[in-house]
Fold each of these.
Amino acid sequence: MGNPVVSHAAQVLAHVPGLARHGSKPSRELPRNAEVLAQFLGSLRSFDEAVAYLPHQAYIGALHPRDLPARPWVGAGPAAGRFTSGGEIMPEEEFLGLLACLDQFGLVTLDYEVAELAAAGLARHPLAKRLNLDRLAAASGDAEAVAAEHGSLPLHVARDRLAAGFRHAHDSDDALAAGVLLENLACKATGTLALLHLIDDHGIDPDSIDYVISCSEEAVGDRYQRGGGNMGKTIAEAAGLGQASGADVKNFCAAPVPALVIAGALVASGVFRNVAVVGGGSLPKLGMKFQGHLKHGLPVLEDVVGGSAALVTTDDGASPVMRLDGVGRHRVQAGSSNPLIMEALGVQPLEELGLSMLDVDDYATELHNPEITEPQGSGNVPERNYKTLAALAARRGDIGREAIPQFMAERGMPGFAPTQGHLASALCYLPHAVRRLTSGDATRVHMIAKGSLFLGRMTQASDGMSVLLERNQGS
Amino acid sequence: MSPVFDGKFVIALGERDGVAGPAIAACAKAAGSDVVFTATECFV
Amino acid sequence: MDLGTQEAILRLVNQHGKDKLLVLLGAPDGESAEISAETVIIGDPTYAGPLAEAQLGLDVYHILEEEIRSWIPADTWDDQVGLMADVLDAEEISTAVRGMRDRRESSN
């Protein structure tokens, strides 16, 4: 059947400062302190600021992360466009409209004026023909009354203006509470938006896609099967992929790489020809580090929900090849030792292919934006990963110890992704990887993801997986 | 045994980006200590 | 520090007594190590968890500190920590945790 390839990737952000208060941290901290709430609301970014923010532009593919200037990035970006070929940054009114378009259960009631604004915005949107805009009229109503209902949540735009009421779906089922459903619908909407850009921006026939694998982190289900749900098929339906089915791959932040590898294996084995991998965003992560941002006089930087989609297909002779013989996995017996994990993911697969660490041009690891993590004392995640990889390269003798900084600068990159772990984990580099391995001058990109399984209190273990992408020799 | 470890029960508080809890626990056990609690924190 | 972890530490203090416990940290930098050390010595600096103002004064070291490292068998050390000793700034981390221990001693 030949090698699978990654032919296209798309990436989106929804700028939702009004929803940031529903992130897990703000939802606990803000209601108990009016002063902090006022400071939080006063520190939210405008849409223009969010679009101009250079890491966001890198996320939607407008510039390579290594072309980012020295920090600080806040306030540094020139006015920029919201669209790229294969991505966009969507403003909050349109995103609330998108939530309403994708809501099949009457969960969202949009304020009349917001519904009109959203309808006007989405009607002009390049993907308008693929959205069911009729739903917007049906979803408009008395948002204030709905928001005041038992179990409902108020949703806001323009920092503090009530824009919608969001209903719960059951009186006594915590898995169907308004907050949970909002998380899930936001995940569905960002995943759908990314998938729509993938097919529309690259001229892919929606009916050609056989299967959609979601690597999103939200838990869809009711109380009898909390987290058992299927976001993959949900997003396939929402994006109008009539011939597709789908399912989910769950592995915390590490999920995108196993999702890609499974997609590749389905294609290589001939089970399916075209498999899309999608990741919707994580609303609970919004404002997670807002206290650190406020303390350092920064805006609330976690105010976007991300989305990502990629197409894995049969060898077209041009697109980057997924080396299924270059997959690294974090074995149980490696335990929790960071050096052993990084060796298993970053080095062993190369050794098995007879390659050195210098045969990889770009290492895509956990690319969390350090401007978001450092003010809260969480350090620079990608930099630590690159230090570990460079130290491994030095130990192997691929480079001298003095060349460690050069290895990190040339083969690593600054983090640019929002702190929604699965999106930051290598997945966010796919649009850049496809470009670098086709029109660019790279030969190999190593995708490395890690996940904190212990967060769920079922194991002390963590996990990780890596896969090598390579320039297609058929071209 | 080290005077620091002597007669102590170890609480292993690891971090995902540094040294993980189970890795600390393995070290403490190898040094002859009793580990009574292991956790790993993840801040991203 | 995670609130569940703070609760667990409080339970262990009640069960074994403060003097019987040794906290070993794996934080990746000085700032993070200092916050963890502060939490188990003075109390949760964010005042969010059960260790807020707890004044436990527990014995706390980072795994990379010489007092600990020198007692770990070499093969275990290489497997479990190894390279991380080069990747992380052991000196900055040691200084931060030692600083917190000194504050405990001066207040005793």
Amino acid sequence: MPKKIEIKNLDLFYGQFQALKSVNMAVDGNNIVGLIGPSGCGKSTLLRSINRMNDLIEGVKIRGQVLLEGIDIYSSKLEIYELRKRIGMVFQRPNPFPLSVYDNVSFGLRVEKFKDKKKTAAIVEKSLKAAWLWDELKDKLHKSALSLPLYQQQRLCIARLLAVEPEVILMDEPCSALDPIATMKIEELMLDLKKDYHIVIVTHNMQQASRVSDVCGYMLLGEMVEFGRTADIFTNPKDKRTQDYITGRYG
Amino acid sequence: MAIALSAITMLVLIVLFIIKEGLPFIFKIGITDFLLSTDWEPAAGKYGIFPMIAGSLWVTLGAILVGVPLGLAGAVFLSEFIPQWAMKTIKPTIELLAGIPSVVYGFIGVMVLAPLIREYLGGPGLSIMAASIILGIMILPTVMSISIDSIKAVPNSYREGAFALGATHWQTIHMVVIPAARSGIIAGIILGLGRAIGETMAVIMVAGNAVKLPNSPLDSVRTLTANIALEMGYATGMHRQALFATGVVLLIIIMLLNYIAMTAIRDRGKKK
């Protein structure tokens, strides 16, 4: 059985600038994978190369492999739209569409031209429940998603993903626009979701990485300095640079 | 400040003048007789402007049918599918269209478009259809450039969100980008509509100016603006007042449209 996601010797260039240098990592099992490192270390770039969001940027060149269950996602064997349905993404700033709550959650179904109204309603309800929003929003399904407070918007974006049942959820600093209480809610939600989904989270909040992740990668200047069990990285880092970062010597 | 005030004063004076000249006439004739009667024979004391109202509405509707699909499609293409640098040269070029004098549009309509219509579709050539096509092209820069601005103003995060759910570029455009830009696009359409209703010279040249209710797009019509411009030169007394009253009707229609456009733009501001 191939691993869910395996990244092999991945190089990524923005024009002349090399943002990722021969990165290796794997996502497998019911683990939350955390990626940490100082700003500009390439952790978001790495995350965005897993569902090919970097393709939207002009002048990006990629070498190496990203394998989803053994299939190279940059090869023609996997269509990009199919890939993005299987690997969903939550962004740094909540980005619900300027549509109603209901239309946001059912968006992915409409993308797939799914017509059954009853089933759609059931999926919307299920997804909102899974993102712990149903009780708060069941009477506001037809309100604009933009009128919700930020912490609900971010969970709505998660619900929107769950509706298309991705296999992997990528989270790009999902809590950086949220206050501590809202952050805690999202973290609890992640721990709940990891039963059913593979989750990769980028965070610049080291405490968050230590709280939620099971496996963790420390990146610096485009390099994966250390990748291993979170407990090991935080208590017994092998690399001097990791230790310096963990102990707050820089970053 | 003084300059701004003087502009406002001019506006108020113009409005007051038109109303003062036109309104007493409307009351004298009766508002229903004026607006709904189809007889316009100033020499016989008959002043019904319904054919002209219908003419203006048909021609404007036609202009919308021609200009909006083209303008919107162009705006989507320019803002979503071509590189930034190309757009930076193409958009000002399109806006140049707005600077061409309307008499030139009318001239092209008379010399090229009307004969084509006459030959291939029948009728006099100078018709609703000719006027609609010419006006549609004339409102293109307005519709297109405001639509481009509002599509460009849609945050990229919406596009990313849609792509991340597996949407194609087209799905992203029609399911997210256009709904998000909708109020701006509507404002652009309404401003274009105002321009179409108010346009005079090009319409006089290509619409044929017959005072009768049209039966088909190939019939000739006279618009409110054409009515004023054509007859003002020799009108006196009641006739002259009737033309001012026509102006009042035109003014009200255009102000209504502008009001709707303003509301649409303001609503967009609120949502953000």
Amino acid sequence: MVQVLLFFVLLSTGFSQESSARLLKTEETFSFLVLVTLCSLIFYFIQQAKSGKKLWIRRIPALASVEEAVGRATEMGKACVFIPGIMDIDDIQTLAGLNILGSVARKTAEYDTDLKVPVAKSMVLSTAQDVVKEAYYRTGHPDTFNEGNIQFVTDDQFAFAASVNGTLVREKPAAIIMLGTFYAESLLIAETGNHIGAIQIAGTAETSQLPFFVASCDYVLIGEELFAASAYLSNDPMLLGSLKGQDYAKMLLIVFMLYGVFAELSIRFFGFPEFLSLIQYL
Amino acid sequence: MKREIPLMITFFTCAILLLQFIVDLPILDRMTNSINDSTSIVATFAMVLGLASLANVHLNKIYKKRRDWGYSIILMLGFVITLVLGCLHGVDKEYSEALTKVQYEAMALENQTLKKSGEKEIHNLVVKSNYYFVRNTDKVVVTKDIFDHLKAQGTPVEEETLYSVDRENRLFYTLIFENIYDPLQATMFSLLAFFMASAAFRAFRAKSFEATLLLLSAFLVMMGRVPIGEMIGSMIGLNAFFPDTSDFIMKVFNTAGQRAIMIGATLGMVASSFRMWIGLETEHLGRD
């Protein structure tokens, strides 16, 4: 981690040197500074967590309900379906979904409940298989792991939705967890899940799909909550520290936004031009 | 080591991509391109794994006659037929695309060579004309009759000759994709309208103050977006009430809410990427 900070510090000094001006893309200075600030805050809080400081994270109902969903599936003797979105492994939302899949798989392994994972990309398939396998091994239930339950369906959006809907209607799982990137298929799958009476937990950072999930699912992880989920579920102090850093970065952004609003109003109503230069820079 | 090696690869790859974002060095651009290329190569290999897994699951189901094994037969038939036809005839992306004159000439030359060597010509050229009515720089496609009429009047119009190819594998493409795949896809997409109605019915039940607000705003937005809304507005003497209110709700409340979520999500993405970069979040790497 120290190397990462050094990496950023060296780059930051590069921005300030006249001779380096041609080497560095000066148009990206602001984005870079935001990135450095954000990463420094995260790094600081990780260190705080490492030193043993207790960090409080608010309760996220959707994540607290994962156990409830798996428990319900166990009681009913039905399967639990996990869908990590329709995008490939290079999508950060898919990775966030797969990180949560590990926690879900550990719970299904402990409760001896079937976990079905239909995937839309073949690279996600091998990763998901590894994640679930590791969870079953770690909980001491390697014998109950069934590789066929993690299945590549198709990389076509609507064909994937049709296949998942078919599985849901035929097998009637008790719990459906959808975490990752979803587009138009989100409502098709979520409404089918609702019709079969499954408990549904969904999460995505796609703002256009969130209303559909809110209308059809029992619990929804909205935007950043999806990325906080793995840290929340793991309860690892270092990961929780990174969440704290993220929250402080958000507070900093809110201060910037308030400044922007204040400055804009000042210019419009009182004509204070001194605010303008910073606003234009931002 | 099974975990350390992927972590090292992640660290160095991310460092190169980040450096390329801020440092203007040709070597970094080349390295970034190589990384992107290698991603495509790995994805191609993974595709084979995916198809093998698909075939394995469904063949097992058929062999052991598990529940709903009949669907697996249909799937395997579709899989094999498409695969065989695709391997025999390939997929020609250009088949319906209009060709430029240069491409046409190149193709004509290619055909001449084929003819000389005694081989069969593979391209059937379809020549067609498009007619445009030109206003400022915008072009509107018109029929030949209107084009002739406008031309006679001295109105600025343009004629463009297009060459398209009708290749041999069109039969395969038309059969599988245009007659089976596209209608099935359209069917799935059209189901969305019905699902949207059932979801809206549930979401808009005025069970609480917030739900009532949602119902009210949905009603106003809907009225502003349908022609009948404007008509009702004009009947009660409020001509632009519904469109203006709808615009206000969408531009102010909706945009503000969406931006708040987007800012939070972006911060989450950066934090999540940072955790993966420094090797703090390793769940996705699977087994030790």
